[in-house]
Amino acid sequence: MNDFWTTILDFAQTTTTRVGKQLMQDFGQVQASQKADGSLVTQADKWADQEIRDAIASNFSGYGILTEESDQSFPGTEWCWVIDPLDGTTNFTRGIPIWTISLGLLYQGTPVFGYVYAPPLNQAFHGSWAGSSGLTVPTGAFLNHHPIHTSVDSPSNNHFFNVCSRSTAIIQKGFPCKIRMLGVASYNFLMVATGATLGGIEATPKVWDLAGAWVIVQAAGGVWRSLKSEPFPLSSGEDYSDRSFPTLVVSRPELVSVFQPFLEGIKI
User: Fold this and answer.
1) Among 27, 70, 214, 234, which residue's CB has the most CB atoms within a 10 Å radius?
2) Is 247 in contact with 226 (CB distance < 8 Å)?
């Protein structure tokens, strides 16, 4: 890994670790309010958002910022950080120890680096993937700096598939795996990257839910299938606050056709 990518990784790790320590103090102790889109937000979300934005501004002059809690329009800069300061706010407020801090670094509107930290679990995921960017990127996906890869298993009653609360229509007779609902979009997809689950679906994720995990899943060998419109590359000047990108992620290409028939009842 060259100096540039080492700097990116070190920044993501240092910043999320620092922010995560404070969030752990607030974990299960704060009240949430409801935003216009029905999702929850706390003072902890807003604090973390500001801390991460300030850190980016201090370390990456000229880089854009797109974030769930404040800057929701893509600035069109060549490089842009996408922030979800607290993915899984409902879990966070209820004391359920699955929530994350998610960062994605975009080049020309498409993620090339992702970092997702789950403080209660002491799990830090990161990955880089060039895709069609034309950059020289050291492709790989890692959990706590150990390489991860998607599963090569075939579906069975001893394997898992993750759903979100808006995709429960997938649960039908004959579904080939056990179902799990984690309540955190980024973590849902990352479980596919580690091989813990064979697939996952999110019916209404936003760009900040996806950016970090998008890179890590594909660097780990997973298949990312957008069910409505492709999230990336982002469009300059567009407001992403009310745009959702329904997504299916599976561990290998052959499983798309296995799970696709069960998606028909889901409203996207």
Assistant:
1) 214
2) yes
Domain match, 26 and 123 both: yes
Task: Provide the domain limits for residue 242.
Answer: 160-263
Statement to judge: residues 8 and 114 lie in one domain? yes
Q: Do 203 and 104 fall into the same domain?
A: no
Burial of 133 (0-12, 13-18, 19+ CB in 10 A): middle
Nearest CA to 191 among 165, 167, 152, 161? 161
Mean pLDDT (whole number) for 51-73: 93
User: Count of domains in the chain?
Assistant: 2
With b for 16 or more beta-carbon neighbours within 10 A and e for fewer, the 157-177 pattern comes to eebbbbbbebbeebeeeeebb
The whole-angstrom separation of Cα 81 and Cα 88 is 19
Is 213 exposed, middle or buried (CB count within 10 Å of its CB: 0-12, 13-18, 19+)? buried
Q: What is the pLDDT of residue 91?
A: 93
As a whole number, mean pLDDT of residues 191-211 equals 96
User: Could you tell me if residue 154 is inside a domain?
Assistant: no
**Placement of tokens 């979300």 in the chain:** 45
End-to-end CA distance of the chain: 39
